[in-house]
Write a structure and sequence with these properties.
Chain B: This is Choline dehydrogenase. Chain B: It comes from Daejeonella lutea. The complex is a heterodimer of chains A (about 230) and B (about 575). By secondary structure, chain A is mainly α. Chain A is built from 12 helices and no strands. Chain A folds into 2 domains: about 5-55, no CATH class; about 55-180, no CATH class. The chains are: A mainly alpha (about 230), B alpha/beta (about 575).
């Protein structure tokens, strides 16, 4: 929805336009992503301090961080629609979330170590030093839970965690949400499922529903009742 | 250390403890009647439109944890401060029992967190003893409360439709929003197996009810608090107008310690600790109204011991804290293959369900008492923390766009495309039912524990019975029937008897009531039918504590109606000089 449509949507209600526009027109730049500023997303003072504390800490070593970046890009690469996991700064998100949820620390650190040891056995070098083909060769051993060998179970479990965190980190980012085609989080006037979608699913709003439900033109009118 | 108790303000007509649904309504009615009111709130001031506090219309990536629930139990963007655990404010549980206590310390209390589901209790809900004998009747009936429900509807606003269902009384409704796609599919599927699906009843303004509040702009985020005040929260709809009268002094960060009494045992005010300076204060008032939540009000009464009230205030019956009961809750998710590869459009809608399933069966034919309603969710909502988890459990089970099967899990471009294909294809069902109020389920003061303010804390004693477990089993069976009827695949394994069929621990649905129940017999109840303490006629409790039984409805609309009724009774009794 463009700014003009937002204004139109707003005009039908007796809303605090200033408040709303400052929300939906806000540039979502790097500053707000960093979320280090007071009030950036409605933190209490205690929550703000906690965020700042976590952000000042460092958990992964440079080598671990680099391996996470490589793995995340294998899981979510750039394609015709959107950029890669590293374009969406997924590794930064994973670095934050393991500090926020310490239960994730051991499985990830241990999993990274498992990966390096496996790589050492197979290729005589750490995962990040392996060639692109070798990395894929190793990932193929742990990326398919139903056909992976029992001896690689620990790696499978680690990769499942990495896959989940990478997907969350990517699709909750700005480029990920655009890729997914999420259209909401903005003022609008919901008027039901689009006609072509209804047709596709063989559904329709019956007369009773249409009669009972909100009519877009009534949105700004104060409700009155007969009695 | 020198310690003294400072008195705040004048001698008030009324001191209200708690600014949630009950306290907010009392503040509005009493101040508009010209009474001078002190309103005590244990948390900070709050307005969802305050840019420093606003979470509405934020994007998931504005939170470094992408909205995860690490600090707020319903996620970073939920409006409610607090949760089941609050640092420095513990509670305990008797061995072998369970109860989780959700508290929200902020102006508006827990009305900042809820689904805005605003259902009236029906005629049967006030008289459950007459149907199954398992608990007591209320001393009042639907006809006593109906006029207040009517006024709450018009004052606050609730959308819905007139359905003519006897125990789901109609009200003064705003028009509901049109159903979303998955809701239409559920309605069709449930209809095939004889389960009714009707428009939900939520206190969200699809049309304005006055000039002070805007109308909904469909961002699906009521749980975050609304910057144009188009949904109900007590801070927005009740405390704000109370402040406008000029008759209310609102004391925030004021953690009530006890209700003060004189030698005759009458309430004279409330003492509290100010969390910001940790000093002790008291507010003196002619009438005290407790609305601190069912358990917190019970705690206050039990902590207000004196020679006139050795068992705690208003507790000559020994019933304070007893009959604690929460709604039952169980849930199940499902994947709907038909919803793969969906066309994208904005289907945020209002903050909550557009349709729901009211209780539809007769208990005579069932092996458990009382009913439940079913809520459901789904759709192309904003991705937040947890999005994409567990893809390896799904993407090996369904064919690709080319019609081929592939190995579960994976990585790369093909996996990336799977997330797009599966987006918006899951739905979830949640049952919310009526439990049996039992004298054996209660909260009491733990003699061995205090919070960081030195206030003795609550110890909970609560166990579900077979009634609730069987009800949860019935919920699970029903969820599966509906899921199968719509061609879906239920997620995970169906919880069995060993897991009580997924029945959540008491306190998890945050509908706990009953701890200061009303009744005509002062030996078996704490309050009379006007929420007035039997023992102390200038003391009232207007939160969920007054409930004799919780229906399978969310309690807020009834708390509001009863608080309005009790407040007008106070005004009337003052006029008649009976208090």
């Amino acid at each position: 929805m463009n700014r003009r449509d937002s204004l139109k949507a707003l005009a039908v209600g007796t809303v605090s336009v200033g408040t709303l526009l400052s929300s939906c027109d806000k540039k979502e730049g790097k500053d707000s992503v960093a979320a280090g500023k007071k009030g950036a997303y409605g933190r209490t003072p205690e929550e703000q301090l906690n965020d700042e504390k976590l952000m000042a800490e460092k958990f992964f070593t440079a080598a671990e961080f680099s391996t996470i970046t490589i793995l995340a890009d294998i899981i979510i690469p750039k394609d015709d629609t959107s950029g890669s996991a590293s374009d969406a700064k997924v590794a930064d998100f994973i670095e934050f979330i393991v500090k926020d949820q310490p239960d994730l620390q051991l499985p990830l650190r241990g999993g990274l170590r498992w990966l390096d040891v496996k790589s050492l056995k197979l290729f005589k070098k750490a995962f990040s030093d392996a060639t692109a083909e070798q990395r894929i060769q190793l990932v193929d051993l742990i990326a398919y839970p139903e056909k992976a060998l029992p001896e690689n179970a620990a790696g499978v479990s680690f990769f499942d965690t990495m896959r989940g965190l990478t997907a969350t980190g990517f699709f909750t980012s700005k480029i990920g949400m655009e890729d997914l085609g999420y259209k909401g989080n903005q003022p609008n006037a919901w008027d039901g499922v689009p006609d072509d979608v209804l047709k596709q699913f063989g559904l329709e709003y019956d007369a009773k529903t249409l009669e009972q439900c909100l009519k877009a033109e009534d949105r700004g009118k104060i409700m009155t009742w007969d009695s | 250390m020198a310690i003294e108790i400072k008195t705040k303000g004048e001698l008030y007509d009324v001191c209200i403890v708690g600014s949630g649904a009950g306290g907010g309504m009392a503040a509005k009615v009493l101040t508009e009647a010209g009474l001078k009111v002190a309103l005590l709130e244990a948390g900070p001031d709050y307005d969802p439109a305050n840019p420093e506090q606003q979470t509405q219309l934020k994007w998931s990536y504005e939170s470094p944890r992408r909205g995860a629930n690490t600090t707020r139990p319903f996620g970073d963007f939920d409006a409610a401060y607090g949760g089941w655990e609050i640092e420095g404010e513990p509670y305990t549980k008797a061995k072998g029992t369970e109860f989780d206590w959700f508290r929200s310390r902020m102006l508006g209390g827990r009305t900042n967190h809820w689904g805005r589901i605003s259902l009236r209790f029906g005629p049967n809900d006030f008289k459950r003893h007459d149907f199954d004998g398992l608990s007591d009747n209320w001393p009042i009936g639907y006809d006593d409360v109906k006029p207040y429900y009517d006024r709450v509807d018009k004052m606050i606003g609730v959308f819905g439709t007139k359905e003519g269902i006897y125990n789901e009384p109609d009200g003064y409704f705003l028009p509901p929003p049109k159903p979303r796609l998955h809701e239409m599919m559920i309605k069709k599927a449930a209809g095939k197996i004889g389960i009714p699906v009707i428009p939900s009843r939520l206190s969200i303004l699809t049309r304005p009810v006055n000039k002070d509040r805007g109308s909904c702009f469909f961002c699906a985020q009521c749980s975050r608090g609304c910057t144009v005040h188009a949904d109900f929260s007590s801070s927005t709809c009740l405390v704000k107008p109370a402040r406008k009268t000029g008759n209310a002094d609102v004391y925030v960060n004021a953690m009530a310690r006890e209700v003060l009494t004189d030698k005759e045992g009458r309430a004279t005010g409330v003492s509290y600790v100010d969390k910001t300076d940790m000093q002790e204060y008291q507010v003196n008032a002619k009438i005290v109204v407790l609305a601190a939540s069912a358990c917190e009000s019970a705690r206050l009464l039990l902590n207000s011991k004196s020679s006139a009230h050795p068992n705690g205030l208003a507790n000559s019956s020994g019933m304070v804290g007893k009959y604690l009961h929460d709604s039952t809750g169980a849930s199940r998710g499902a994947f709907i293959p038909q919803l793969m590869d969906r066309k994208r459009y904005n289907e945020d809608g209002v903050g909550g369900l557009h349709l729901y399933i009211p209780w539809w069966l007769e208990n005579k034919k069932l092996d458990f008492a009382r009913g439940y309603h079913i809520e459901f969710w789904g759709g192309m909502s904003m991705p937040s923390y947890g999005f994409g988890f567990g893809m390896e459990k799904t993407n090996g089970k369904y064919p690709t766009v080319e019609g081929k099967m592939k190995d579960a899990g994976g990585y790369g471009a093909a996996l990336k495309n799977d997330y797009r294909r599966y987006y918006g294809s899951t739905v979830g069902f949640a049952g919310r039912g009526e439990s049996i109020p039992r004298v054996e389920n209660y909260c009491e003061i733990d003699p061995g524990a205090v919070d960081k303010y030195g206030i003795p804390v609550l110890r909970f004693n609560y166990n579900w019975t077979d009634q609730e477990v069987k009800q949860a089993k019935h919920m699970q069976d029903t969820f599966e029937e509906i899921i199968h009827s719509m061609g879906g695949v239920a997620s995970g394994d169906k919880p069995g008897a060993d897991e009580k069929y997924g029945l959540l621990a008491p306190g998890r649905i945050i509908h706990e009531v009953g701890t200061t129940r009303m009744g005509n017999n002062k030996n078996t109840s704490v309050l009379n039918k006007y929420n007035q303490a039997h023992d102390v006629n200038n003391l009232f409790v207007v939160d969920g504590g007054a409930f004799v039984s919780q229906a399978d409805k969310n309690p807020t609309w009834t708390i509001l109606a009863l608080a309005m009724r009790a407040s007008e009774y106070i005004v009337d009794q003052l006029k008649k000089q009976n208090i």
